[in-house]
Design brief:
With 170 residues, this protein is α+β, with helices and mostly antiparallel strands. The chain has one domain. The chain has three helices and ten strands; from the N terminus they run H-H-E-E-E-E-H-E-E-E-E-E-E. The strands form two sheets. Strands 5, 6, 7, 8, 9 and 10 form a six-stranded antiparallel sheet that branches. A four-stranded antiparallel sheet has the order 1-2-3-4. A hairpin with a 2-residue loop joins strand 1 and strand 2. The longest helix has 16 residues. The chain is globular, with a radius of gyration of 18 Å. About 4% of the residues have low confidence.
Length: 170
């Protein structure tokens, strides 16, 4: 019986002190999973774990158990899948973060299209990394640019640069 307790304690220590695990549990300042643009238009991120990841105690039972992020653009109840946008981040949760002080979406360059920001949670202390910004054009999501975001105390994305990279780098 004492050996089971030691294994349990080691497992808990691994879960809470390994770098990738922190990214699973750390809070993102303005991170949310769903943005409602209007009554019939919204964006949603789902991050399910693969089947068989947890043992009977609810602990991670395999080392490859990380969220599998999916992005959906829902218009009038019809779900459009844009998972390829968030598929680069296989070992962290992805969130929508506040794009401006006013909210989660805005028309940044006043061209009639709305932009929003996605932030992959990166483990660390007071991390400031890239948030990736996308435009909504009709029923498509198009890359816009990137900005900086502080995961712990950031209120919104700053230093936005249009067209800086083509694909996000995990």
């Amino acid at each position: 019986m004492p050996q089971n307790k030691i294994v349990f304690v080691i497992t808990i220590m691994f879960l809470f002190f390994s770098t990738p695990s922190w990214s699973l549990f750390e809070k993102v300042a303005t991170g949310i999973r769903e943005i409602h643009i209007s009554n019939n238009i919204h964006l949603k991120i789902e991050s399910p774990f693969p089947k068989g990841c947890f043992d009977s105690w609810g602990l991670v039972s395999r080392k490859d158990c990380f969220p599998q992020n999916k992005l959906f653009f829902i218009i009038a109840g019809k779900k459009h899948t844009f998972t390829s946008i968030v598929s680069n981040w296989k070992d962290v949760f992805v969130y929508f973060v506040q794009l401006t002080p006013q909210g989660y979406f805005a028309d940044l360059d006043i061209d009639g299209t709305l932009e929003f920001a996605i932030y992959p949670m990166v483990a660390g202390n007071n991390v400031v990394t890239d948030a990736y910004i996308y435009s909504i054009i009709g029923n498509k999501i198009i890359y816009y640019g990137r900005g900086r975001f502080n995961s712990e105390r950031g209120k919104y994305v700053t230093d936005i640069v249009k067209g800086k990279t083509i694909r996000p780098v995990p």
